[in-house]
Please model this.
Amino acid sequence: MLEFLTEVRWSPYAVGIGIGILSWFSFLISKKPIACSTSFAKTSGMIEKLFKGEKVDLKPYYQKIGLNIDWQWMLVMGVIIGSLISALLSGDFNWQWVPSLWASVFGDNALLRVIVALVGGVFIGFGARWAGGCTSGHGISGTLQLAVSSWISAICFFIGGILTAKFIFNLIG
Amino acid sequence: MQTSKSSDQQTQTSVPKKKISPLLWGLAFGIVFGFLLQKGGVTKYDVIVGQLLLTDFTVLKVILSAVLVGMLGIYAMKTLGWVELYPKSGSAGMNIIGGLIFGVGFAVLGYCPGTIAGAIGDGALDAAIGGLAGILIGAGLFAALYPRLSQGILKKGDFGDLTFPRLFKVNDWVVVIPAAVILFFVLFWFEQSGL
Model:
């Protein structure tokens, strides 16, 4: 009866419907939309605070978001745990430095892939804060509320992403 | 001394009930969200970059069906007075430029902030080592530049926390129903064309 839990993949529609229903409960119970990216900014500020001390709290952006562990920060921790549970149940967990699509074009050098991932991460971290959200906060939770800011952001995520992916894989690769 | 002690005890007994439970709810929602993302395959670089190369439509199928179902339920609950909306404020300078910068990172990294957490959970080391460090650096860089950006480019073309029903000055359902129909037909078209 519970075999579906050990399947590696579910239909994307089953997953999407599940996330849609999950968002009903997060509005109803926690009065918050599902979102992730602010937690990375909080973490960045909290790490900076370890080195530079209390004055980091005074930076205007950290005053605005607050350097604390909150509902969304716990949600991001939960995503790691939930994904780990899913992967362990299905046997889909494996340590991997280089994704196969990347390796098929750029080879299996782990250092190259990590450096490129780091550069991509800088753009993601910077762009998410600039746009005020990411694929979950704008792309799912914001668009489903029909927020103008989220529809513009989500469309720009994909325009920027498609052009860049085509450039990387078709022109460089 | 004694008065401060008794007030400490008071706050200690009242704090856990008020503060711990929302955090645990956050953790619980995250576990379900991460489980679903992993089952959908969207914690995988190959699936995300496949979407951006327009060879694999899994990511859009997940997002658009989540939006379709989420929107109908949340607007129904809003009509019933059960929930409030929390639309984010925005401006052309924020959402277009920020969105495009994010998009570049989306393709280069191959994960986004939610799916990278899931990717760390299913063992992706490029995510856990390179990508995570990059996101933290990028967010820190933004915080450093924020005082300058917030007075300039982020304010350009400001429209506040607008939603489409308020923009068009119509009842919510005048937008929700056509949006649901369009989302349904987009998904139907993906299936029809074998994407």
Q: What stands out?
A: Chain A touches chain B through 129 residues (CB under 8 Å). The mean pLDDT of chain A is 97.
